[in-house]
Amino acid sequence: MSAPGVPFEEALSIFDAGNAKPYAEALFRASFDAPFPVPRENCGLAIPTPPENWRQYVARYRWPDGTEETVGFCNWIKYRDVYLEGGMCVDKTFYRRMPREHFAQCRARGGIAQMMMEAAARELTDCKAWFGYCGDAKALAVDLRAGYVQTRHPHLIVKWFRELPPAEREALVESIAAIGPF
């Protein structure tokens, strides 16, 4: 791949796209072989999911030739005082296709998934915590670098945004665990 025309920070943009289907539908389907999670009420979870509670972040990369591509996606749904994070995916071929200089800079920052969580963490702070449901070892390593900790429930992880008494933390974890996988 030829040398990049712009610095990595300018080639990559991460933003809340609202309904990210136009940007990330193909990436999501390739990653999960499932329909894209369009923001909607009654999305299949055992909790209310009104569209206004959804935040869908995308990572877009501008190649040296000027074309743009969605290389990452993640979904957050606000539920009471927390966000439920899910659907994180990064294009499996992206890293090996990008210019070497950009790859080194991206890797030094933890990769696309970590950068998306960091961008969202600067904006989605109107909560006590984020919860995720993660069963993949590589994804869990990224989540832990981004500030998540494991709970006593298999696959359920939490990133705390507020100091809470231990009993309140435990009650919150239990209430989210009761939802099941998300």
Structure description:
It is a single chain. This protein is an alpha+beta fold. It has a single domain (about 10-175), classed as Aminopeptidase (3-Layer(aba) Sandwich), CATH 3.40.630. Helix content is about 35%, strand content about 25%. It has seven helices and seven strands. The chain has helices at about 10, 20-30, 95, 100-110, 110-125, 135-145, 165-175; strands at about 10-15, 55-60, 70-80, 80-90, 130-135, 150, 155-160. Strands 1-2-3-4-5-7-6 form a seven-stranded mixed sheet, with helices on both faces. A hairpin with a 5-residue loop joins strand 2 and strand 3 (about 70-80). The protein is globular, with a radius of gyration of 17 Å. The mean pLDDT is about 95.
How would you summarize what this structure contains?
With 182 residues, this protein is an alpha+beta fold.
Layout of secondary structure:
Layout: H1 8-11, E1 12-16, H2 21-32, E2 54-62, E3 68-79, E4 82-90, H3 94-97, H4 100-108, H5 112-123, E5 129-133, H6 137-145, E6 149-150, E7 156-160, H7 166-177
Parallel strand pairs: 4-5
Antiparallel strand pairs: 1-2, 2-3, 3-4, 5-7, 6-7
Please name the defining characteristics of this protein.
182 residues; Aminopeptidase; 7-stranded mixed β-sheet
